[in-house]
Amino acid sequence: MSEERSISFEELNAFIDGELDAGAAARVLAAIDVDDRLKREACELRALRDQVRNSYEPARLGVGQRRGSFSAGRWPMALAAGLLLMVGALAGWQGHALQRQGNADGVWQRIAQVQPQGDARRLVLHVGDPDRARFENTLDEVRGMLRAAHGRGQAMELEILANGTGLNLLRAQTTPFAERLAQLQAEFPELSLVACGQGLNRLQGQGNDIRLIPGVVTADSALDEIVRRMNQGWAYLRV
Prior knowledge:
The protein is of the alpha/beta class.
C-alpha cells in the first residue's frame, strides 16, 4: 500500500453519502479495492453513518404531525426522544473510538474526542435530503422550539445544517423556502443556517448554480461542523 493517500477523506465521505457521480464513485471503489487502510476507513465511516441514521431515524420529525401544536411549557416529543437517543449514541461512539486508537487516520479518531453529552439549548438539526414536506414540518418545529424557549425566558441557539441533496433547500435557485427562512431568521437571530462547503464544491464542479439564499454561511464540510459543534457541547439531531 502506498504511503501517499490516493483518496481524500472528503471524497471518501462523499462516496459513503452517495454524493459522487458514477465516474468518481468508480474511482473510489477501485482505490478501496487495492488500499487496505482506505478499505478500513470506508468501513468505519459507513458504520458511523449507519449509527447516526439508526439512532435518529425513529426521532425524525414526522411529516404528518399537526402544525402549531407547541405550548410554551413543553418540548416536542420527537425532539425529546431524539435527544435521549443522542446521548446513548455518542457514548457508544466514544467507547468504540477509544478502543481503536491504533488507527491514527481512522474516522473514529475524529469522534473520539467528542463529549458524550449535549446541551439541548444548543442544537444542530442536520438536513441531508430535499424532502419539502419534511423540511416544512421541521421549520414548524423550529419555530415552536424557539418560541417555547422565549416563553420560558431561556436562551437557545439552533443551527440548521444542510449537506448532500439537502443543499437544495438552501440554494437560491432551488429552494421554495427562501422567504420563510428569512422570516424565521428575522424573528429569531439565534437561528443560523449552514451549508456544507464540500457539497457545494461538488455541485459547482457539475456546473450547478451554488448561490445560497441570504443568511446562509458555509462550513468546510458537514462532518467537520457536526464534530466542531459537538465538541462545543451542542446537541445533534438528524431530521
